[in-house]
Design a protein that fits this description.
The protein is mainly alpha-helical. 65% of the residues lie in helices and 5% in strands. A two-stranded antiparallel sheet has the order 1-2. The chain has a two-stranded antiparallel sheet with strand order 3-4. Strands 5-6 form a two-stranded antiparallel ribbon. The longest helix is centred in the middle third of the chain and has 75 residues.
């Protein structure tokens, strides 16, 4: 009953009030245009009723598009059939997600966080925040946003989450394939490096054997060269023999002189005249054998340089050179 005594149903009054000036609390009668003063409770109830009616009308309009929704469902079912393996894996994550939702009390909370006295009945598709109450839609930040009731929002969001689970499983599968590929390459690389180390070890063993054999050959060559030692020894032996004879002659002469045997001295002198006198041997003309130490040292230095130049040049699959890590750099990585 209005102040002008005209009666209007609540639905008509709510619809009419929604198109009138909302800044005032006056309701203009649709029949006589007389104003009626409203309190805050009446204004809130009319706005709430109009919002509920509007949402129901939107829902009824969308029901007329069932054919298009069926097509979407058919495409979704085909997608589900093409991903049987993924759907089998999805069962556990979905149950786990539902369990987490219940444990975190996302659904069980029925009061609005901004208006504790109001129950949450709607979900905003523009903000995608927690569920909201009618007050948030009428006077709050969600005014003129696309909202649906929780019951109608649930299947839409549930479908989005299920699609997200499918996408996550695809990502997990890709990550698993990449991990397996990297592990395979790592194993191949380790086997390749181990084979290279074994080959190098064998080569260095051969080099070591060659060095030992070559060392012995060179020393044998030095020992077998006809050097000065043999010729010098022969000359020294002959000189020692002559020196011994001369010493014997001197001793014999000294003995005869000491005994003052005049006849014996003359007889000995006569005897020595008929004998060849020992002579100092001529100094031998021995050709010295000289080893070219400079050449030998140069050869040894060349071998050392070549050994120092032995290195491993590693390249990637694009031919780019890869530098080996030092011990300090390796410690930083690990």
């Amino acid at each position: 009953m209005l102040a002008c005594n005209h009666d209007l149903c609540l639905l008509c009054a709510a619809r009419s009030f929604a198109f009138q000036n909302k800044k005032t609390k006056r309701f203009l009668c649709d029949v006589c245009s007389s104003p009626t003063e409203l309190d805050s409770t009446s204004v809130y109830e009319l706005e709430k009723l109009h919002l509920t009616t509007t949402l129901n009308e939107r829902s009824n309009k969308k029901k007329s598009n069932m054919s298009s929704e069926k097509q979407i469902r058919n495409r979704s079912s085909q997608k589900t059939e093409n991903k049987e393996n993924i759907n089998q894996k999805r069962t556990l994550p979905t149950k786990h997600l539902s369990k987490q939702l219940s444990e975190n009390s996302f659904v069980s909370k029925s009061q609005c966080s901004d208006h504790p006295d109001e129950d949450v009945n709607y979900y905003c598709f523009d903000c995608h925040c927690r569920c909201i109450c009618p007050e948030c839609i009428i006077h709050g930040v969600h005014k003129n946003h696309e909202v649906k009731t929780i019951k109608k929002s649930y299947p839409v969001i549930k479908k989005q989450l299920e699609d997200q689970v499918d996408q996550n499983l695809i990502c997990i599968s890709q990550i698993d394939n990449q991990r397996q590929e990297l592990e395979r390459r790592q194993s191949q690389q380790l086997n390749s490096l181990e084979n290279i180390k074994q080959q190098l070890q064998q080569e260095f063993q051969i080099l070591h054997q060659i060095l030992v054999i070559k060392e012995q050959e060179i020393f044998d060559q030095i020992d077998n060269i006809p050097n000065l030692i043999t010729q010098y020894s022969s000359y020294l032996d002959k000189s020692a023999e002559i020196e011994n004879k001369l010493n014997q002659y001197n001793e014999k002469i000294n003995d005869i002189i000491m005994n003052k045997d005049e006849a014996g001295l003359l007889n000995y002198f006569a005897h020595t005249q008929s004998q060849p006198q020992p002579q100092v041997p001529q100094f031998p003309n021995i050709k010295e054998i000289v080893i070219n130490q400079s050449q030998l040292q140069n050869q040894m230095n060349e071998i050392k340089i070549r050994l120092e130049q032995i290195t491993i040049e590693a390249t990637d699959d694009k031919g780019q050179r890869v530098q080996s890590l030092t011990n300090s750099e390796r410690k930083k990585i690990f």
